[in-house]
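Thread title: Can someone regenerate the structure for this chain?

I was given the following input by a collaborator and told the matching structure tokens would be attached. They weren't. Posting the sequence so someone can regenerate them.
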Amino acid sequence: MIRLIVGLGNPGEHYRETRHNAGFMVIDHLTRRLKLKHCEECCFSHLYKKRINGVDIYFAKPQTYMNLSGIAVKNLLTDLNLLPEEILVIHDDLDLPLGVTKIKFGGSSAGQKGVENIIKELGTKNFYRLRLGIGRPKEKRQVVNYVLSPFSPEQRPIWERTLQKAGECVIRAITEGIEPAMNFCNRND
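Best answer:
Regenerated them for you:
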């Protein structure tokens, strides 16, 4: 059962609307949709909690910056007494076209530095990820600028639909289970 949802991103207003903050944006969306209460600053994270179906579900935005997300996640698991299999990490993914969502379990980081650091800190790849497609820039050397830039006006409506779908994926994962969430999320129509 998913008990902790971690949205990856970078803290600070400068990064707020950037593609790399896709995970933070989903947590912010869920905060509004589920009326989450900010319960505390814990484990290098903004932490929110909601009781759903009699179980405490936690939502976190690590404040360690993307590339050190594993430090926060490891501390959260220890503090909340959870296993890696009970987390869903939400992150941007350059390898998926804008608008595509995928839930997967395990596997490599596919070059996503936040996921890479989580794997390193936890010593396992065995956790769920909600991958949010942001597409790739035309030139490989532009990747850093691309992920640290906001969505273009043309991309914004697609991103807004992706945000809605990602929120629904998370809600299904915590209310119906991971399989129904995967069936919904991995269907890109």
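The mean pLDDT is 96.
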